Amino acid sequence: MTQSISCPSWMVNMGNDIFMSPAGLVYLRESATKHRIDHIMDHTKAVDGKPLHGVFIVKDQDELLKMIDDAWKKGGEIVPTNNKNKVTRIDYDEAIGEGGEKFLCVVTRVVKKKDRVITAYPSSSPDCPRH
Description:
Largest sheet: 7 strands, mixed
Radius of gyration: 14 Å
Strand content: 25-35%
Strand order of the largest sheet: 1-2-3-7-6-5-4
Number of helices: 2
Structural class: alpha+beta
Helix content: 10-25%
Distance between the termini: 27 Å
């Protein structure tokens, strides 16, 4: 059964649980039971047994998504990958992660010239290792 997710008020609801941010990031389902926004929110808490799992300082969904959107508008560096995903690293002057991480890694896949968000997480490495 598909669980419904509500569109943040400041995003455009494109229907079918697809939302677009002001910066043009598109958030959609990753499965029938989980939305990409839920996936990003998984990075607001530690996961036992997962050593590479950046945890954001910001815990509020709206605040976190706005932080990601504001960072995306500023732009960042593309990190090389071995798959179809695009990883963009955005540098911060202060920590955004609980472990002092200062890099925001935004993983997207470009479809029809739109960046579809796969995930976003804080990282201590500019290489944005996979989580």
